[in-house]
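Appendix B. Chain record.
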Amino acid sequence: MKTHRILPVATLLALAAFAWSGSDYYTGLAVKIMIYAVFALSLQLLVGGAGLVSLGHAAFFGIGAYVAALLSPQSEAASLWLLLPAALLAAAAYAALTGALALRTRGVYFIMVTLAFAQMAYYVFHDTEVGGGSDGIYLYFRPQAAIGGWLPFDLDQGHTYYFFVLTCLALAWGFLALLRRSPFGAALAGIRINEQRMRAAGYSTYPYKLSAYVIGAALAGLAGFLFALKDGFVTPELLAWEQSGLVLLMVILGGMGSLGGAVLGTATLVLLQELFQSQALFGDYARHWHLPLGLTIIALVALLPDGLAGLPAQWRRRRARQAPAPSAAAAKPLPLPIQGEPHA
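Structure tokens predicted for this chain:
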């Protein structure tokens, strides 16, 4: 089995075993990392797959979270099989509407248009009573997975929610891995490398980019849905541009060309935040955690231009450059044997 297949399986098995760590704090931290990993994977499809850098991806994350809260009754649990598709479809619908316009632009203009659409969604929830205004809205009951009278699992029991989030991460990771190996993924890679050449080859690039934009939004909606179930509380800050910048930083930090890099970048950034906010380690200086976090990120980006996932390849290139060059005698090819002479 190849390394790129072993590492995802090993990561998922390690996360599954971590559920029995015995600490609610660390399992909650693992759940947060897994949710943001789904969020980062959804953006990696756009950035690493199609070369579309978006600063409005948090809109879909927040819409998925708000749909989960708004469609859940205050007196009883909603149906998981209705609530989850609704969250994904709402995020995908907003992406289809805004992406149809945003994808008419390119480069920095695309970045600004996606940011504008995200801010529009942010102010809808922040300045109106649709979702409780700036105070946010509570989700009182996690949805039930009942099918008729049969309950296959209960998200409020034991580690069920933990494994539900882990399953969503595994499915998102596997789906994107298959998508990258499909003709659709190959077309996205061609668009990222040279869109003009793809058009000259007869491809209509706009439908491919719009499809990737909608798929990425649906996965971001899934992450938002899981986040709402985790805390039971949703605020407009989930749609703010800071969230879009945070998830973009996760993708860049891990490596834009790798799905595993998105997960690795997510874990690194979340753990660094927890580290520098620890008052047990830094005391009162923990209030200024943004400064050491920013300096650490600058150092990592400067030292690892290919991201954390590209560290092994970068190390191999450095070893190859430091290796002594072969001598002239060793590099000289052996003469061809004359006919009738034995081969060396």
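Further analysis of this model is presented in Appendix C.
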